Amino acid sequence: MKLIFERSVPGHGTEYLPPCDVEEVALPPHLRRAAPPKLPQLSESEVSRHYTQLSKQVYGVNCGFYPLGSCTMKYNPRIDEEMAALPGFTNIHPLAPGYTTEGCREVLDLAEKLLCPITGMDAMTFQPAAGAHGEFTGVLLIKRYHDARGDHQRTKIIVPDSAHGTNPATAAMCGYQVVNIPSAPNGCVDLDALKAVLGADTAGLMLTNPNTVGIFDENILQITQLVHEAGGLCYYDGANLNAIMGVARPGDMGFDCVHLNLHKTFATPHGGGGPGAGAVGCKAHLARFLPKSALMDGQDDHLQVRSFHGNFLVVVKALTYILTLGREGIPAAARGAVLNANYLMRQIRGFQPAFDRICMHEFVLDLSRFKKETGVSALDVAKSLIDRGMHPPTMYFPMIVHEALMLEPTETESRQTLDEVAQVYGELYDLAHQDPDYMHGAPHNAPIGRPDEVRAARDPVVRQKL
Ligand SMILES: *Cc1c(COP(=O)(O)O)cnc(C)c1O
């Protein structure tokens, strides 16, 4: 596709401005450009066509199936966006006098009041701007708790190998030594491995649940009990709360703190780099360490992890979503997410699940045997899906499964869509056995085929030399 600068034709444009009816005043020479700016010259219709064409190169949940595992790419009801666009919420400033922002305070208070019982926590902050940022905040609460008790020997955080990659990164960022423990063959935490590393130096454990292979840890009560007996605290990575919300609560499972990705489960789209909110909830014994906005009457040494109150409009969307779904809708959404994942896992023919058991909101396919048989990799399958008009699933993650494809259909897909998806996966399974070379060359119908992903990430070229 041509750049808008390449479409430019000298003299094209739109004469919207009325003739100047005030006296012209010349700028002083030192403030004037030496040459006119190189702006593209196009008519209104040319501009409109250019941007419409550009928008068609984007793939989102409004275009079709988007099962990006661990990212919860679901359809978010428009009403959430409409509420967040109300001028009363958008035309405010954090430094405005308190009496003019009472409604906004109420949004934050009510969201906390509703999310605490959903998670089984006693208090919550909306300051962190992302899931990983929420983890960072939560682990700092754990650190402050031990510090306040003068318990300085606790230098280690335990992280199972089925955790989201941000968990060990967070623990390291907070200055802890990360102790990795393996999973048992059933995909859950290996209890013996956990017992072997627990001790007086354990600050806590971070558990992603459901874990990155989509499994709810069946020993979860025992895990939190063991950690507490060793004097550590338990952190629940609840980024994917849509698997359990309204059905089970981290607080009841023995966790001391939790973060939620409001920008996955609660109505703000994930991905695309937009603003997020990694809300952090905690039990009463950690509540005094929670971040406070400098505007609130906190102590001088209060924790602040972001300016003011965080990404406020994301909280408006989450609140709208919770109020719209209500007491029945929240658990129904969770059940739908789990049902859809299990249904799709069973409908897909040929490809093998990494763990052949009931999953939560997502599941992982293990294509290593398939690759040995056909030479076709998980990457080839992902690229072939693009030709079928579908967004590929998450690939090569989690790292504990080789040739992984990780699918999260989400609760907002219909049975008809899931049947179509299963059909396409089945067709690709057959195609791999018949014409593997065709799949090595996929995608055949996309504007971009196989970019050098390492260079694109490490050395992105985002400027066009004109
Ligand atoms: C997405 C995700 C995160 C990180 O969230 P970000 O907002 O991308 O920082 C952490 N843990 C789990 C389990 C996730 O799925």
Short account of what is shown:
The protein is α/β, with parallel strands linked by helices. It contains 17 helices and 11 strands. The protein starts with a helix and ends in an 8-residue tail after the last helix.
What would you give as the CATH superfamily of the largest domain? Answer: Type I PLP-dependent aspartate aminotransferase-like (Major domain)
CATH domain topology of the largest domain: Aspartate Aminotransferase, domain 2
* Strand line-up of the largest beta sheet: 1-7-6-5-4-2-3
**How many beta strands in the DSSP annotation?**
11
Mean pLDDT rating? 94
- Unreliable runs: none
SS summary, helix count: 17
Please name the CATH architecture of the largest domain: 3-Layer(aba) Sandwich
CATH class of the largest domain, named Alpha Beta
Largest sheet: 7 strands, mixed
First-last Cα distance: 16 Å
Radius of gyration: 26 Å
Strand-pairing-aware structural class? alpha/beta
Overview of this protein structure:
- The protein has 17 helices and eleven strands.
- It folds into two domains: 78-323, 3-Layer(aba) Sandwich (Aspartate Aminotransferase, domain 2); 331-457, Aspartate Aminotransferase, domain 1, CATH 3.90.1150.10.
- The longest helix is centred in the C-terminal third of the chain and has 36 residues, at 312-347.
- The chain is globular.
- It is of the alpha/beta class and 466 residues long.
- Pyridoxal-5'-phosphate binds at residues 70, 130-132, 164, 166, 208, 237, 239-240, 261, 276, 278.
